[in-house]
Every structure is written in C-alpha cells, then in structure tokens.
Fold:
Amino acid sequence: MTDIAAVDHDPKSVGFAVSEASVGDYLALMKPRVMSLVVFTALVGMMVTPVHLHPVLGFAALLCITVGAGAAGALNMWYDADVDAVMRRTSRRPIPAGQVMPSEALAFGVTLAIGSIAVLGLVANWLAASLLAFTIFFYVVVYTMRLKRTTPQNIVIGGAAGAFPPMIGWAAATGTIGVESVLLFLIIFFWTPPHFWALSLWRAEEYARAGIPMLPVVAGHAETRRQILLYSIVLAPIGASPWLFGYSGLPYGAIALVAGAAMIGLAFRIVALGDQKEGVHAAKRMFGVSIMYLFVLFAVLLLDDWLGAPGRILL
Structure:
C-alpha cells in the first residue's frame, strides 16, 4: 500500500496522492455509529408530523439526511486527523491509520455534502436542504474548526449540530419549522453536554494530550461532574416537554419523566463518588445510559404517534 505518511504528511493536505482504501474505510469515515442515531432522530422528526410523505419521497429525503450526516463526519475526520492520531479512542480511524489519504477524505466529504443538499432540495424542499447545509457547515466549520480547539464550551454550543436532524426531518415533510420540531431540537441539545462530558471524564488525559480543551481538562473533574448534574436536571423536564405541551400522550410523558429521573440519579452518583474507581464506572455507565435515554424517548414518541397518542392530554 502507498506510504501515506511519506506522500501526504499534512493531515489537512489536499494533494493528489491516492491510497488503496476499501469501501469499508470510506464507510468508517462517515461515522456510522453516530450517523445511525442522527438518522433515527431525523426519521422520528419526519414521521410525527401531521403531513405524511409518500414513502418513496420520505425514503429519498431520509437517505439525503443520512448522506449529509456522513459528509459531516468525513470532513470532521479530515480536519481532525492530527488530534485523532494521538488519542487512543480515535487513532484507528481511517486517516491516522493510513487507510485513507486526507485529500481523499476531503473530496469525499465535499462531494457527499453538495450532493445530499442538492438532492434533498429537489425531492423535498429547499428549507430542509438549507437546514441540512447549515448543519454540515455548523458541525465542520463552527464546531470542528473553531469551537472544539478553543473553548471548553465546545460541546454545549457545538451540540446544536447534532440537534438539527429531527428539525430537518420535520421540514422535509412539512416545509415548515414547527414547535414540535423545536422541542425535539432542545431535547438533543441539552442531552449532548452530559452525554459527552461523561465520556470526557475518563478520557481527560487523552484530550489533554491532544490539546483539546474539554471541560475536565480546563475546569477540572469536580466542575465537570457538577455541570453534568445541572444539565441532567434541566434535561428531565425538557425531555417530557412534548407531553407537557400536548404533542404526545401520557405514556410518553411517564416514560420521559422516569428516564429523566434515572439520568439525574446517575448524575448525583457521579458527583457523590468523585474520582473514586466507582465514580469512573458511574461516568462510563452514564455515557451508555444516556444513549439509551435518547433512543427510548424518540422510539416511544414514534410509537405514541403511530398509536394515535391514546390518553393525550392537551394543556
């Protein structure tokens, strides 16, 4: 295989050397695990609208959102190849592992971004396409190129990029931005900090070595644990807001409140245990539970809509 380090040592190079990357390497560039949650939340945003898209158009719109999310992931990996190489969690990604040239990742990401935006505008509407374009721009330029390396609030502000997909799905189906889609945006926005800060608590040394000012690196573990608790307390009622505002039924509200209480309980445990070994385990557990929290809320919201929201209470 081509010696990538020799022909293209600059992680942001746009040279013309060619690697022997496989299809799997390019799929890995798209961050499939992250993309799967993005696509699911976009699907829910699309399905819970009062407008029902034709299945073919709906599938095409969702595919465009999927490709757009993959484009953002590829461009993120292109720009972050230097820091990915020094972090154990990311050192085996395609670029630092020498499977894909940085210039190839850049071309791949730009092509996917332009194609997904253009096609979404044609098969759905240009509001949805504009939101997708803004999301990619925000994630790549605002978060990756600026916030991530300059401020411990990178996850708080940058989390908006991951919160837009349900709004894009809603816009693809309705051509508008409804209150419901804003509530879904807020759920993901306030979920993001405790989710990623839980991860950063046990990865703080890696972030410090890479020069990334994550909250534990800049403000310390104690302040990070306090912020996790504060955001979890705020997240709980926001998670239940679709029910509180009358857009979902009582079953969703009950599950959202229980799930929110579980997040708060884990956050209190993280604070109480501190830097003890059990505290590290609690942070790891919260990272995993937070993923389930978001998945369960959106899955129940979708089921609630399919069942016609029995017992829905309009406030």
Summary: The chain has a mean pLDDT of 90. The longest helix spans residues 277-306. Residues 75 and 287 are 25 Å apart (CA to CA). The chain has two domains: 6-177, 179-315.
